[in-house]
């Protein structure tokens, strides 16, 4: 009888352990790999650029996604604008997450998912300092021209309200002075 009770208790402890373990979500990253050509074919947008903004996060079906904005220098596939915003799996490599550092340049392979441009650890992204061989395989991309006019026009917009306020103040002062002189001579 004691053996039966010990077996039942052991079985219950074993089953409760399995149930508690399987109740937690666990995702492991398993990358398919592939050649540079295959990564290029799987991607919607491939570019080299510098991270200019690290934004907030949003939740997708399986992962948290962190927003990154890049100043694009060269494009091999997809959108050829001078800035691109992508969403990267937020987390470590074990969960296919990848983090980009603001001010650093990367070769980025990204794809469209859930109406967002996304990337992850398995996409094949590399710091530009480690991407020389991949860039040779990709061949010459399209170089994006960044004009100084873009930044100078934005700088002007910062001062625009101040200039308008100064013009209004000067105009009001001149009108009052003119009215004062007119009254004085009448």
Automatic annotation (TrEMBL):
The chain crosses the membrane at residues 156-178. Keywords: Membrane, Transmembrane, Transmembrane helix. This is Tissue inhibitor of metalloproteinase. The lineage of its organism: Bacteria, Bacillati, Bacillota, Bacilli, Bacillales.
